[in-house]
Design brief:
The protein is of the alpha+beta class and 1425 residues long. The chain is 39% helix and 11% strand. The protein has 50 helices and 33 strands. The strands form ten sheets. Strands 3-8-7-4-6-5 form a six-stranded parallel beta sheet, with helices on both faces. The protein is globular and about 120 Å long.
Length: 1425
């Protein structure tokens, strides 16, 4: 005789072999059966790991005794069958037929749905009222208030008070020491401490009531949901000691109070021994779970009340599993099913009566495709599991494991996603890896279908110590392949451990997709709204009158979630420009290094000199830099930012949010990186980084032409030894020219004998050169930064002064940033702005829409036309507006079966009006994400950067002349060439190669001279002191040309220039005094603020338009179901509808006996035309019945026509949206208006053969012959009512309505209604179209050549189309027709050409007048000469 665990230990240590055993007698097999042969039992491990792997002839015989309790009879069931299979033995006396009968049953639990009534709005308990008298704002013990309210709704008022009693110990620990001896009214203690003591005493002395389950009693103090739970549990009393149950709940507060309440119900549930097990507080103690599960298996406790956090652990199987709360997770549902005993067990779902969301969740998690069903079966039966199918769909918003844990102060180990703020705890990691494997399988050829995803290894420890398990991940070709866990007591805990380590590795490599990270409930956009709605009468913000209002402008949370201090690891993202056109600048790759890994960023377009270039991103392995490299990196980042903005920007290492590094020109990622990321440490040119970190310029090597040619490869030069000055790109080395040459193609030197004489006359102290035979450098000016996000942005026009074209090498300096690096760096302001936009979009998609909307479409949807980008929301807004009308029409039709058509219009308008959309969008915080401002690129600077202002130092008399010499005369400076600003002292510095930089920053962000640091967010006030002025030549921006975006952005802060040898030179004022610039800013009023400030002004309609555009984006992303969920995410009121099928379930239609009967054959004829059969033919009779027919007023077509109108509107918009993808929103609106007009729909109903014959005769396409006809409205109404009738007949499935559209309407529209056939006068349509685009600069010009008139359609000085004819009117008509055709074929023309909307948003009155004048001239033949 020996205990089973000693037998297992002996076998594990090799002290005993199975072959040495001849006969095993198991005296307590009943206990094995009661525990459902759980794999953790020692005897089960003996059988699985030793007995079954032994040759059958060498195995011992098995004899087991099963003795049921005295109060129960023994019978053969699925548990007994499982015991047979475990022990490889058979129960005596049971026939094979009985075994076959049980095996024929599916090994799945019996799933039951229990309905409970909706909880009434909770009123405060007496305890809560007393506590509120002390703490009306709930600022003290906030977590207890929250748990109390939630428990009140879910369990009842007695449970609400019980939360406070359970929290008494935590409340006491928060009191001041010696609180018992402190007088509550003592004025010397802080008021908040006094309130805490009073609240503690109230709770401590409160008489708590017992649960009253009598629903008819006035003292009924539990929820109907809890009452139903008690009723369900009561039905299992007959199970006796064999009962094992698990209740899964959402919050750990619910688990704790449920256990307490069930213990008090001895009279009804005396057979229960409940125990609450929550993940919070026990994550790091694997033995805690093992102990609880052991007590559950042995019957010490027979009912576990658990949170989601333990669902994937090795919980012993139960006869009953109850889901007290539903949550949307296929993986979680599989885990819960795995906790049942399969056959003859029960899985119970508690669902709120009439709750469509619960219905949708239940449908989604239980109706699985074949692949998902097969995978969930594997998940239930095998700890190794398998790779999930691609169809795995998990929301990131299921209730979080013990979600209140984030309000606790107890530290937990978690991975935080910086993009969305989501967290991965230990208990979440397994599901994350499942989702990762499902997403990655198509890109990892080494992963096979049905492949095991986990592998386990047993660790045999010393004798008497339980064995442990190590789990490793089996995903070949991925970065987490073979990641292994610690050795842990159970396989489930080892699986958790390895998955969490795998998540950490993915995160550290920057490969953890933010879409995989669970999002805490408090970060969802609807969280604050739902919290207010539960306790406030009206949570909708009041909108008194339409207008423009100030809203907060959100910045990406990603940068806020980055840590500060000196970083130990940085995450690189390589920025490269792909497929540049030959002849353009060579852009070198740059590395953006962040303190936290950036998410995957899509490529996007920028516009460089009118050419679209593609910005691409690639991640690289994290960099661990030593102190020297970190110092160089910091200084290089400061250098590159100073070069971009031409300002003395500084930032300390501790505050720097991100960093930049160069990469060699032409660098390419290694081809074998696969799913991993390349290591770029060795590819970084650290020598150049160090050089640029220490100096802004170095002398040019010009001792020989060959040396000069080599030194200026990929180089930028400057003609003076100061940091903030003009820079030039090297075009080529002119070996045919010397300083004594006079270039014929350079007007600057026209009045001088040669280039050297020009420089000599302009530069003080220049007498000679060391080499008059040195070649000359041909250069071109480096332009200032631009808004490269705007397709219409162009470099500023050249100033009136002749630019420098030829420079003498000896008098120049070489900028330490290479040309290819500088070209890419000049794009960084636009790139970083777009990265911020993309980060905001990811955050918006996660918090509002559970990543259900395509990010590219969502970005378009939040971009207003005034932002001046290549795209805006207008097309999507047109689609979303039509869908919202379609959705809301069906909603009011279904929910208001007795309303007339007019009343339905009113009800619909309450949902879709701009005022309603504004209110609902504002209360969830949507305006903060809208991008409405033109990018103020001149004010750009990285976060935490400031402008370095050198301290003023008193001038000494002996230095006065030198200072005056350095400063120079203002008038002379205006006339001086950039190539001769280096005086004799500077020339000496060049010769001696003693050039030094002004200080960048020390570690604390200040120079040794303790300069003043001024924020760049607003202009500085300037005095007239020459020491605070800025040299005009030192400005990187052109002063002579007009900046196309100048109205949208002002130069931020003036900079100080630094001279040779690190001496700060006096700054000078640019053209235009500071006072003038300031007054200009005042003229702008509220809209003159910096783009980067936290406030933006938005019109009410713009917010409503963005909401509609988002709905349109959701429809394109996932169809009508995704659009419906997006609508509900914006809290637009569509109560009791959670999926489209809910409409068919709720609709009420007139019965067949009350609708009019059609003539024999009419239904068949209409069905033949439509190409679809009616499921409810009597609805067609209603659709064909006019309200004037006596006796059928209530069943006429008016209600059907109401929804048919919306259905046709949406199908028309969807059709032209897809068909005419090049058309602007204005043109789409024109087409839609023409297609759904009463005349057009009436024309569909009649024969068109006469028009077709006439069109053939005239050699043209059929036109809109119905424009001059006024048809009866009933014809168009019938078309719409038939669409509505067939839609309802198909149970709100669009297949029938789409057949009507495809077979009847679409061919008609494609033949008759296009942009060219909209009107008999295309000039009118063209001008309306351009006006709808917001364009103001368009006209039709006329040129006369003998008897031929040539008309040109000119848009922003670009000829869009031309035509010739004998009369101005016909020529203008033809030119307009060709222009419409050109606009239809070139989607980007107006985007690239017109920027009127972003610069003239406040001149709508002038816009209208110009349009009317131009249109009057065009129609009257008065074309501009």
């Amino acid at each position: 005789m020996a205990p089973s665990h000693l037998l297992l230990d002996s076998l594990l240590r090799g002290a005993l072999a199975v072959t040495q055993l001849h006969f095993l007698v198991l005296t307590d097999a009943q206990n094995i059966k009661n525990q459902d042969s759980h794999s953790s039992l020692p005897i089960v491990q003996v059988m699985n790991d030793f007995y079954r792997v032994t040759d059958p002839l060498s195995r011992p015989r098995i004899f087991a005794l099963v003795s049921p309790p005295a109060d129960r009879r023994s019978h053969f069931d699925s548990k007994m069958l499982k015991l047979e299979q475990t022990l490889d033995a058979k129960v005596f006396g049971v026939t094979e037929e009985k075994r076959t009968e049980i095996l024929a049953l599916p090994d799945r639990p019996n799933e039951i749905v229990i309905l409970y009534d909706t909880a009434q709005r909770a009123t405060e308990t007496r305890l809560l009222k007393q506590l509120h008298q002390l703490d009306p704002t709930e600022s003290v013990f906030r977590r207890h208030y929250h748990a109390s309210r939630y428990t009140h709704e879910e369990v009842g008022s007695c449970a609400s008070d019980l939360v406070w009693r359970r929290g008494l110990k935590a409340i006491e620990s928060d009191l001041v020491p010696g609180y018992a001896d402190i007088d509550e009214e003592d004025s010397e203690i802080p008021a908040i401490e006094g309130i805490k003591i009073k609240m503690y005493n109230i709770v401590k002395n409160w008489p708590f009531t017992m649960p009253n389950l009598d629903a008819s009693s006035r003292g009924f103090n539990v929820s109907h949901k809890f009452l139903r739970l008690v009723q369900v549990l009561s039905t299992f009393k007959s199970y006796g000691e064999g009962f094992r149950g698990i209740i899964f709940v959402q919050r750990h507060a619910i688990a704790l109070v449920l256990a307490d309440l069930l213990r008090t119900l001895d009279d009804r549930l005396g057979f229960l021994r409940p125990h609450a097990i929550v993940g919070f507080g026990h994550h790091s103690d694997p033995t805690y779970y093992q102990g609880v599960f052991q007590r559950f298996a042995t019957g010490v406790c027979n009912l576990l009340i658990a949170t989601k956090s333990i669902e994937d652990l090795d919980i012993p199987k139960a006869s009953v599993v109850i889901r007290y709360d539903l949550f949307e997770s296929q993986v979680s549902h599989a885990y819960v099913r795995a906790r049942t005993r399969g056959r003859e067990s029960h899985l119970i779902h508690m669902v709120e009566r009439g709750n469509d969301m619960h219905r949708r969740i239940l449908s989604r998690i239980t109706n699985l495709d074949a692949d998902m069903l097969r995978w969930t079966e594997t998940l239930c039966n095998s700890p190794e599991s398998s790779v999930p199918p691609k169809s795995l769909r998990e929301t990131i918003n299921p209730y979080h494991s013990d979600s209140e844990a984030e309000d606790e102060e107890e530290p937990q180990n978690f991975i935080k996603d910086p993009t969305t703020g989501g967290r991965i705890y230990l208990q979440d990691a397994t599901t994350v890896i499942y989702r990762y494997a499902a997403n990655i399988r198509s890109r990892a050829p080494g992963i096979l279908d049905h492949q095991r995803i986990f592998e386990f290894k047993d660790i045999h420890k010393e004798f008497g110590i339980p064995r442990a398990h190590i789990c490793s991940i089996n995903l070949p070709g991925t970065p987490i392949h073979k990641v292994a866990s610690d050795d842990l007591p159970s396989k489930a805990q080892a699986r958790r451990s390895t998955c969490f380590k795998a998540c950490e590795k993915l995160y550290n490599l920057g490969l953890l997709d933010c879409q995989l990270v669970p999002l805490p409930h408090h970060l969802r956009a609807q969280h604050e709204y739902e919290r207010r709605k539960a306790f406030e009468k009206d949570s909708i913000p009041e909108v008194k009158a339409p207008g423009t209002r100030a809203y907060p402008r959100k910045q990406p949370a990603f940068w806020e979630n980055n840590p500060s201090g000196i970083p130990t690891v940085l995450y690189p993202t390589i920025i490269s420009i792909a497929n540049t056109i030959e002849g353009t600048e060579a852009f070198g790759p740059l590395v953006l290094l962040t303190r936290e890994p950036l998410p995957d960023l899509p490529s996007f377009r920028l516009f460089f000199s009118g050419i679209a270039i593609h910005i691409c991103f690639q991640k690289a392995s994290p960099l661990h830099l030593d102190e020297v490299h970190m110092k160089d990196l910091h200084a290089f980042t400061v250098r590159i930012c100073r070069a971009i903005m031409n300002k003395a920007l500084t930032c300390s290492l501790e505050e720097m949010t991100y960093f930049f590094l160069p990469m060699p020109l032409g660098w390419r990622s290694p081809p074998d990186s696969g799913l991993g990321v390349p290591d770029i440490m060795e590819s970084i040119p650290w020598e150049l980084v160090s050089l640029a970190a220490q100096h802004w310029a170095v002398p040019i090597k010009h001792s020989s032409p060959e040396e000069l040619e080599a030194d200026l490869q990929d180089a930028v030069i400057q003609d003076r030894w100061i940091e903030f000055t003009r820079r030039y790109k090297v075009v080529k080395i002119r070996n045919d020219l010397t300083p004594l040459s006079k270039p014929a193609d350079s007007p600057r030197e026209a009045s001088y004998e040669n280039l050297f004489e020009f420089c000599k006359s302009k530069r003080k102290g220049l007498e000679t050169l060391s080499n008059f035979e040195q070649p000359i450098i041909e250069v071109a000016k480096v332009h200032a930064i631009l808004n490269h996000l705007n397709p219409t942005s162009k470099p500023p026009s050249s100033s009136n002064k002749s630019p420098a074209k030829y420079l003498i090498p000896e008098l120049c300096a070489k900028f330490t940033l290479s040309a290819s690096t500088l070209w890419t760096a000049m794009l960084l302001p636009s790139i970083m702005r777009r990265i911020n936009d993309l980060l905001l979009v990811k955050e918006l998609d996660a918090r509002f829409f559970d990543h259900a909307v395509r990010e590219d479409l969502l970005h378009i949807a939040i971009c207003a036309p005034s932002a001046g980008l290549e795209y805006d929301y207008e097309r999507l807004e047109l689609l979303g507006d039509a869908f919202l009308k379609y959705l809301s029409s069906i909603y009011v039709f279904v929910t208001n079966p007795s309303l007339t058509e007019g009343a339905l219009h009113v009800a619909r308008q309450k949902i879709i009006s701009n005022k309603s959309l504004l209110q609902h969008s504002t209360r969830v915080g949507l305006p903060a994400y809208i991008q409405s401002k033109v990018f103020a690129y001149k004010a750009w600077q990285p976060p935490n950067f400031r402008v370095y202002i050198p301290p003023k130092t008193p001038r000494e008399p002996d230095n006065k002349s030198a200072e005056q010499s350095n400063a120079g005369d203002k008038e002379e400076e205006r006339e001086r060439s950039p190539n001769d600003s280096v005086d004799a002292q500077e020339a000496t510095a060049v010769d001696n190669e003693q050039v030094e930089d002004a200080p960048l920053v020390q570690a604390n962000g200040t120079s040794e001279a303790s300069p003043m640091l001024v924020s760049g967010s607003r202009p500085l006030e300037h005095s007239n002191d020459p020491a605070t002025e800025i040299l005009e030549e030192d400005s990187f921006s052109e002063t002579g040309g007009q900046d196309p975006d100048a109205g949208a952005s002002q130069s931020a802060t003036p900079t100080a220039t630094a001279g040779v040898n690190g001496i700060s030179e006096p700054a000078r004022k640019p053209r235009g005094s500071a006072s003038k610039r300031k007054s200009k800013g005042k003229g702008k009023g509220k809209k003159g603020k910096s783009d980067e400030q936290a406030i933006q002004w938005l019109g009410d309609k713009a917010i409503a338009d963005v909401a509609e555009a988002i709905i349109g984006a959701a429809y394109i992303s996932g169809g009508r179901e995704a659009a419906l969920q997006a609508t509900k995410a914006l809290t637009i009121p569509l109560s009791n509808v959670d999926r489209w099928s809910d409409f068919g379930r709720k609709v009420l239609t007139p019965p067949p006996n009350v609708t009019a009967k059609l003539k024999s054959g009419s239904i068949a004829a209409i069905e033949k035309i439509i190409g679809h059969k009616f499921n409810r033919p009597h609805l067609l009779g209603q659709a064909m019945t006019h309200s004037s027919i006596q006796g059928y007023e209530s069943t006429s077509y008016e209600r059907l026509e109401f929804i048919g109108d919306a259905i046709l509107d949406f199908m028309v918009i969807r059709h032209i949206f897809d068909r005419d993808q090049q058309l602007s929103p204005g043109a789409l609106t024109m087409l839609k208006g023409a297609m759904v007009s009463n005349s057009a729909l009436a024309a569909v109903c009649v024969c068109q053969q006469k028009e077709y014959a006439l069109a053939d005769e005239e050699g043209r396409s059929p036109g809109q012959y119905w424009l001059d006809i006024e048809p009866p409205k009933a014809l168009s109404d019938v078309v719409e009512s038939i669409a509505g009738a067939i839609y309802i007949s198909d149970n709100f499935d669009p297949v029938g309505a789409e057949s009507l559209f495809d077979n009847v309407l679409k061919p008609f529209y494609d033949k008759h209604i296009t942009l060219q056939t909209l009107s008999h006068h295309p000039t009118k349509i063209l001008f309306e179209l351009l006006q709808a685009q917001g364009c103001q600069q368009f006209e039709i010009t006329k040129d006369k050549d003998e008897n031929i008139i040539r008309c040109n359609v000119v848009v922003h000085d670009i000829v869009l189309a031309s035509a010739e004819d004998t009369t101005p009117t016909s020529a203008a008509r033809l030119a307009s027709f060709f222009a419409l055709d050109a606009l239809e074929g070139d989607a980007d023309f107006m985007t690239k050409t017109c920027d009127c909307r972003s610069h003239h948003t406040h001149k709508k009155t002038h816009q209208k007048t110009d349009f009317e004048k131009a249109l009057e001239k065009a129609l009257g033949g008065g074309i501009n000469q």
